[in-house]
TrEMBL record:
CDD domains: Peptidase_C15 (cd00501)
Gene name tied to this protein: pcp
Protease listed as a keyword: yes
Gene3D superfamilies: Peptidase C15, pyroglutamyl peptidase I-like (3.40.630.20)
First and last residue of the signal peptide: none
Protein name: Pyrrolidone-carboxylate peptidase
Length: 213
């Protein structure tokens, strides 16, 4: 049986919870076809997050990896297309670090693309009534740091990987008036469907997923 690794993050920026971990941990141990899901929480800390990721990759030797992170202000499951080799933190991480214009991997490529069938995943989610889109930026905080580090580590292997950003949960949005949110059950269902689609899809759909700006 193959292993799927899902990662989420600890809370940051004074939030009591992080929806990425709340959603991901509910899928721990789930069997999908011939695959088994394991989940791990990563620290919201530059550098330390990649150390924790390395431990998980070594321990489980997964065939597919998806990182999940919180993106307050987004209204849907945002399936990321590209990770860039830049740390540029608007706020400090949970260890007080605030790197500005530093590389995730010195000397690494400028960017990596997700190796997941991102358009098939977004299509499946929308068809099932779950808001989803293709995102062209994973930001420049710890989420992108992990996404880039993940893709760098798996470059040249057959392991498929990528990253999904999710909105606030309703209880978080209540503290941030006007911000969109999705219910935890909806996010969990969406992540499960995204995984099932990734497992079942060899060649991605050819349909628009771009943006004008």
């Amino acid at each position: 049986m193959t292993t799927i690794l899902l990662t989420g993050f600890e809370p940051f920026e004074n939030e009591p919870i992080n929806p990425s971990w709340e959603a991901v941990r509910r899928l721990d141990g789930l069997k999908l076809s011939s695959a088994y899901i394991v989940t791990r929480q990563l620290p919201c800390v530059f550098g330390a997050a990649l150390v924790a990721l390395d431990h998980a990759l070594a321990a489980y030797q997964p065939a597919l990896v998806i990182g999940v992170g919180q993106a307050g202000g987004r209204a849907d499951l945002s399936i990321e297309r590209v990770a860039i080799n830049v740390n540029d933190a608007r706020i400090a991480d949970n260890n007080g670090q605030q790197p500005i214009d530093t590389p995730v991997v010195p000397g690494g490529p400028a960017a990596y693309f997700s190796t997941l069938p991102i358009k098939a995943m977004a299509h499946a989610l929308r068809t099932s009534g779950i808001p989803a889109s293709i995102s062209q930026t994973a930001g420049t905080f710890v989420c992108n740091h992990v996404f880039y580090g993940l893709m760098h580590r798996l470059a040249g292997t057959n392991v498929r990987a990528g990253f999904i950003h999710i909105p606030y949960l309703p209880e978080q949005a209540a503290r941030h008036p006007g911000q969109p949110s999705l219910a935890l059950d909806t996010v969990v269902a969406g992540l499960e469907l995204a995984l099932r689609t990734a497992i079942a899809t060899g060649k991605d759909l050819r349909e628009t997923g771009g943006q004008l700006n």
